[in-house]
Amino acid sequence: MESSIESNTKTLSKSQVSNTRLQLEDLVFGSVAGMVGKVVEYPFDTVKVRLQTQSVENPVFKGPMDCLKATMKEEGLKGLFKGMSSPIVGAMLENAILFVGYRQIQRQIREYSPPIQTPTTILDSEGQVPLTLNQLVLAGAIAGSIVSFILTPVELIKCKLQVQHINKTTSFRGPLDLIRHTYRTQGITAFYRGFLPTFIRETGASAFWFGAYEYTCLQLIQHRQKSTDKLVSKNDLTAPELMLGGAMGGIAYNLSFFPIDVIKSRMQIQSSGQFKTFWQITNEIYKGAGIKGFYRGCGMTAAKSAPANAIIFMTYVRTYDSVLGFIIEKKKS
């Protein structure tokens, strides 16, 4: 199976551009895609986090719409974007590292476990044997595990700022104020509270993210191939088709490990004092609300994941193709 991140470029491009340049391009294009996607999804994320972290015994909100209306009434539109500067930076770093890692890990897989070529194998646009879906999923999982080390402190800051209004905790002026306070009162290790669930979520969910995207693109290619004698590749997919692949990846990412995300959010908003562990919070949620307690904010997450991730993948691929096409034309002239 051909990877769209590896092959959604013109055939000549990869042989003409150095690996270092490709890594830099992945960093830039991944950053842009992450920033755009985060702006789209952030209001939904604020509602999700507030639903996830409210008291199990005495919930403040009845559901997503109640939370949305209450936030707009009490805080205005800016309440939905509270604490966004930190996640914007985090999203840029996350997506940049994800795309760079995904591409580089695919290269390592090719080196140490090369895919098998058969007489019927159709080579990808680089003239290489395509990686299998399982290999692409593995590459996504490893890339996600790396990202978790950066994402943990970013999400801790985001979650604390998103809920400080309803929790009546210390009012921070912004991310830098919160960072200074946390470091001064709890030390550097406090920024990695919630690392275990973040690591589990990012490793597993990133495998689903890339896996669902690649699988959807493959199905679209196979569908097109039935109606033409011309060899169809990822280069032939339209923007709406790429967005469909991204949307499916986003839904798979967010819903596959949602209970872990709930636990992570509750771990990260704890105030200074007696901090509860991963298992203590898991037990607390289950005793207070049963299985449904692990799915608070799930509807809002599903609503945000499709458009945000559709934009992320489409932005990444189209930006990549546009710049790479410009480089090729410049080399020809």
Q: Overview of this structure, please?
A:
With 333 residues, this protein is mainly alpha-helical. The chain has one domain: Mitochondrial carrier fold. Helices cover 71% and strands 0% of the residues. It has 12 helices and no strands. It has helices at residues 4-7, 13-16, 19-53, 64-75, 85-112, 133-167, 175-186, 195-225, 239-256, 258-268, 278-289, 298-332. Helix 3 (19-53) packs across helix 6, helix 6 crosses helix 8 (195-225) and helix 9 (239-256) crosses helix 12. The longest helix is centred in the first third of the chain and has 35 residues, at 19-53. The protein is elongated, with a radius of gyration of 21 Å. 44% of the residues are buried. Mean pLDDT is 82; it is low at 9-16.
Query: Which of globular, elongated, flat, extended, rod-shaped describes the shape?
Result: elongated
Mean pLDDT: 82
> What is the fold named in CATH at topology level?
Mitochondrial carrier fold
Radius of gyration: 21 Å
One letter per element, helices H and strands E, the order comes to: HHHHHHHHHHHH
Alpha-beta classification: mainly alpha
- Helix run count: 12
The number of E-state strands comes to 0
